[in-house]
Amino acid sequence: MQNTNVAYDSKVEGEVIVTQADAVINWIRKHSVWPMPMGLACCAIELMAAGGARFDISRFGMEVMRFSPRQADCMIVAGTVTYKMAEVVRRIYEQMAEPKWVVAMGACASTGGMYRSYATLQGVDRIVPVDVYISGCPPRPEALLDAMIKLQDKIGRERSVKNLTARNAEPAEAELAGAGKES
Ligand code: SF4
Fold first, then answer.
1. What is the pLDDT of residue 181?
2. 125 burial class (0-12, 13-18, 19+ CB within 10 angstroms)?
3. Which ligand 1 atom sits nearest the alpha carbon of residue 114?
4. Which entry of 69, 112, 138, 152 is 20 to 30 Å from 7 by CA?
5. Alpha helices in 31-159 (DSSP H)
6. For a pocket test of ligand 1, which of 40, 81, 108 has the largest count of ligand atoms closer than 8 A to its C-beta?
7. How far is the CA of 9 from the centre of ligand 1 (A)?
8. How far apart are alpha carbons 31 and 150 in whole angstroms?
């Protein structure tokens, strides 16, 4: 599969590499994921450990944790999402620029975990689209790294150019629909 993305013959093409736009865009994106650490409870400690020297998330180009949603493209929801925080999580997600991804880290973020209570959202996927779920309470830092590698695989399979075209077309379509209503 990988071999179909790049075709290179130095004798014929010299310094030129022929490839697909999707392959290049996805390769760049998946090796420069900037996480937004949405640490809400104890799972956040495991997330912090992943950034330390022992687990060293920077091996995957993901150590640039950004606390501004405008500079992040992957929200790692680490911890229990209460209804009180759910609105904030959703707002920060909406402030992140496209393309963006979400990882639900741990039982609480994935399903509400042991908190079957009136105060707890039963899974962050009720308010934001989740790309990768991590099981465990708490999941180990290695589990987070495994999830991030899975996310890289997913990013590598995206139809980036097509998605970009579709997103650009959306406002125009919405505008046309709005114009139709006015007339
Ligand atoms: S899954 Fe366990 S460790 Fe993680 S936030 Fe919930 S209770 Fe804490």
1. 46
2. middle
3. 7
4. 152
5. 43-51, 83-95, 106-111, 141-156
6. 108
7. 51
8. 12
Domain count, the chain: 1
- The distance between the two most distant Cα atoms of the chain, rounded to a whole number of Å, is 67
Which atom of ligand 1 is the closest one to the Cα of 138?
3
Cα separation, 107 vs 80, whole angstroms: 8
* Whole-angstrom distance, CA of residue 47 vs CA of residue 105: 9
pLDDT tens-digit profile of 118-161? 999 999 999 999 999 999 999 999 999 999 999 999 999 988 88
Task: Tell me the CA–centroid distance for residue 17 and ligand 1, in Å.
Answer: 47
Q: 136 alpha carbon to ligand 1 midpoint, in Å?
A: 8
Give the whole-angstrom CA distance, residue 10 versus residue 125. Answer: 47
**Cβ atoms within 10 Å of 41's Cβ, excluding its own:** 18
Domain that holds residue 34: 21-157
CATH number, domain containing residue 125 = 3.40.50.12280
The answer to whether position 178 is within a domain reads no
Report which protein residue has its CA nearest ligand 1's atom 5: 79
The whole-model pTM stands at 0.84
Q: Is residue 1 part of a domain?
A: no
* 48 domain-assigned: yes
Residue type, 113: G
Percent of the chain at pLDDT exceeding 70? 84
